[in-house]
Amino acid sequence: MDTLDINDAHYDRKILDLQRRYDEQYDTIEEIEVQIGELQSQIRSIQQEKISGDNIYRLLLAFDEVYHSATEAEQKEFMKAFIERIEMFPEKRKDGSWIKKIVFNFPVPIDGEEVKELPLETETTVETFQYKDYADRYSDAYELYGYDAEALFNHYETVGKAENRVGRFKKTPEEDDRHPYVWDADEPLDPLPPLDFHAQPDWFDARTLPENLSNVRIIKEYEQLEAFIEKDEWIGDPVLVRKEELLTEMSSRVRNYDGRRGGADYLRAISQDIDVLLDFMG
């Protein structure tokens, strides 16, 4: 700009043009500086999360020593940095608890996982008690109360706990009341036996055990194997043993279901649609 000739006829226009260009450059520089600031902020945030993930476990190990050696003001500041918020119940619970959930400012290691929220709500009520599972496990309770949810819950609270019986609870009343012995009926079937007679022992060793099959799948496995046997005349002992063990497992489930004998066979029988198995076995 200093090199411009003041006597130039176009001096004023050139000055204005240069000024406009400078303004545009400064606007661009300002935008870049804003972007750099935002990126630096993001980097600091990422670094802070990394610091939290890498070092928070060490901090927690020394928590008692650090916390109790701090002043009351320092303890409050520490809690503010550590905890985002604490959610409370509107009223004191029957078990004496007030705190519903703790939300941390950064992920903390709990039970092998990094979490930011720690629910402390425990629903041990008749609404969350898996009463069917309890009745299926303990025939004496079933004989007394059938599938009466409230009666079975009371039995567990007054008798079951004292006898170390298993009582299972859902996390929320809305959660599916799933049985502990549940498999995916849509999972793929085991491969058919190899046509190579000498390879059938290895095929047998790699099979899915009958007790790990759902009612639906065990029927499909049996039907598939039976069709294979009917088509192939070269059948080795492993194939015949497999067929027999599937049939034995199905028969045992039906027998235990009909007699309500309890135990693993009964639990496997009722884990899914028992009517499918009853219809198949006639």
What does this structure look like?
With 282 residues, the protein is mostly helical. The protein has eleven helices and three strands, in the order H-H-H-E-E-E-H-H-H-H-H-H-H-H. A three-stranded antiparallel β-sheet has the order 1-2-3. Helix 4 packs across helix 6. It starts with 10 loop residues before the first helix and ends with a helix. About 2% of the residues have low confidence.
Give a short summary of the structure.
This protein has 282 residues and is mainly alpha-helical. It has helices at 11-61, 63-69, 72-82, 131-137, 139-145, 149-160, 200-205, 215-231, 237-259, 263-269, 274-281; strands spanning 83-88, 99-110, 113-119.
Descriptors for this entry?
three-stranded antiparallel sheet, 3 strands, 282 residues, mainly alpha, single chain
Topology at a glance:
Blueprint: H1 11-61, H2 63-69, H3 72-82, E1 83-88, E2 99-110, E3 113-119, H4 131-137, H5 139-145, H6 149-160, H7 200-205, H8 215-231, H9 237-259, H10 263-269, H11 274-281
Antiparallel strand pairs: 1-2, 2-3
